[in-house]
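Progress report, Aim 2. The chain analyzed during this reporting quarter is listed below.
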Amino acid sequence: MGLRQTLVDKGKQALLRPSVMRWVSDDRVMKATEGILDARSRMRAAWSVLLNGHDLPNVDPALDEDIGNVPVRETLSAEAPLPTNGKSNGAHITTGSSDMDESLKERNSLAGIGGRDVFEKAFKFMAADNARKMGIYPFFRALDFNDGPEAEINGKRVAMFGSNNYLGLTTHPKVREAAKAAIDRFGTSMTGSRLVNGSMKMHEELEDKIATFMGKECALVFTTGYQVNLATCAALLSNKQSVAVIDRNVHASLYDGVRLAQSAGTRLVRYKHNDADSLDRALEKLGAGEGAFVITDGVFSAEGEIAKLDEIVPVVKKHGARLLVDDAHAVGVIGPGGRGTAHSFGLSDQVDLIGGTFSKSLASIGGFLVGERKVLDYIRHFAPSFMFAASAAPPSKRRINCDSLSSRPASTRFPTSSSRTNS
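Predicted structure tokens for the chain:
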């Protein structure tokens, strides 16, 4: 082995050490890295970000230190004329900065702009246009094909590192056959909501299968995974006595669900990422009449970290709170037979609700929630985002096969925190 290869191997080993991974995934370090990669001229700004940790705009709500606060709004003059014919009022709408750095900084303040024209912020948003002009816009890239580990863009084969197709089932022949058979028998859509005419025995059979697979009393199937979190949070956090106590790094859909609940008076409290002590302190500060709903991801999508449920669950039980684990990135990946995080710790009976998605390991689209029947029945009747949403299409449900997961060896059990070694 040559010296160069030895140095490369040693470098990889050093970068993959848990201590290094924790450091580079720190919010401030990530923000500083964004600044450094953006342009050489941003070195000074990046240093400021490293020191202050708040200068760059936050796309991910987990990085927003001011979430839940009402922003100070800019307003238009009362005498400002309204735009006509759907056009912006050129006298009062600026084109935004053409500088990429300034455009990014503008993103923080745009959402707070108010006035008589609600479109004003849209015409001032220039960051995406500027990035497109510079040829560095990275989002919404149209793929020709997505075959799993590889994809095709503009006729060029590329390696796929951003897919959630964890088990490679999206192109499996049996999965495709099941979807085709569902179209032949049931058609392409239910053309209605679960509440009215969109529920079929097919949905109930799938719910029974998921409940059995996850070891819970009941399951509820949703049209999307995002909808699971919107519906659950909005339905259960329904008054001023409810408090959402969330890990700061949870999915954006959970933040959106809590935002819906805040309109009913629910309070939002965040605890330090994957930190049971921080959760304990947050729960201790709640009022005697407040009910806490603790929310965490099972596997955190950005970091790939697994929630320390063996530490979190005892804290939740200590304070008489309830616990929701979003297992979107865990089902099919960890736990006996791919049953997820709670099962991997042997704590499935201690977790009140477990949510998941079909769009990752299960090679479809939609989501599910498992827990006690009465709780899920309440959500079924008190979550508008479930009641009035179109039911999932037959082919997306027929292609889901929990049996293929349950037949996997039950050997993917994750060690408890006390048995982990810090290397």
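Residues 3-134 form one domain. The first helix runs from residue 3 to 15. These observations will guide the mutagenesis work planned for the next reporting period.
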